[in-house]
Amino acid sequence: xxxxxxxxxxxxxxxxxxxxxxxxxxxxxxxxxxxxxxxxxxxxxxxxxxxxxxxxxxxxxxxxxxxxxxxxxxxxxxxxxxxxxxxxxxxxxxxxxxxxxxxxxxxxxxxxxxxxxxxxxxxxxxxxxxxxxxxxxxxxxxxxxxxxxxxxxxxxxxxxxxxxxxxxxxxxxxxxxxxxxxxxxxxxxxxxxxxxxxxxxxxxxxxxxxxxxxxxxxxxxxxxxxxx
Length: 228
Prior knowledge:
With 228 residues, this protein is α/β, with parallel strands linked by helices. It has one domain (3-224): P-loop containing nucleotide triphosphate hydrolases (Rossmann fold, 3-Layer(aba) Sandwich). It contains 8 helices and 8 strands. The strands form 2 sheets. The chain has a 5-stranded parallel β-sheet, with helices on both faces. β1 (3-14) and β2 form a beta hairpin. The protein starts with a strand and ends in an 11-residue tail after the last helix.
């Protein structure tokens, strides 16, 4: 299994009050599996991705990703864990503005030692996502769709075991959204990595064989349609 979750809870505190964000008794994702998680905005889907990536610690329970329990690691060890095993595609892409498309892809692999990516391999990844003609373009000169494709190429650069994508088509029109998801899924199959996509777009979610209804997975949402 690339992901194994048991009795996971996350609570946020505001003053003396605590508010449950996640309560997931059990959930697993297999190696190379592709999963779409659907649910309304603000329901905790991004929180779950942040826990899986080791960006947020659970309040209780066990979360294992790629054979590692991120919550048990120090901050620098978590950085190394992500560098070695996990790529995260954010809603806002998080491209480095002062770097070209090719340089952004190279940076994506730079922190995953001992893995090394050369310029020819970065070019091949950008070619894979249809951006050979944009190698030397800066993010500000790219369309939203092109920025998204650079983010996908960068995510693949270090050959991760797991890719987490948070609303990867949120800034795209339906036609381009479908193309980006197809591209991402095909690339994950080719590179042999598991994929977890969070999306509220029904047409995107329906293309996945494995679909998770977050209102049913997350028991913290019992009052808004989840399990009682």
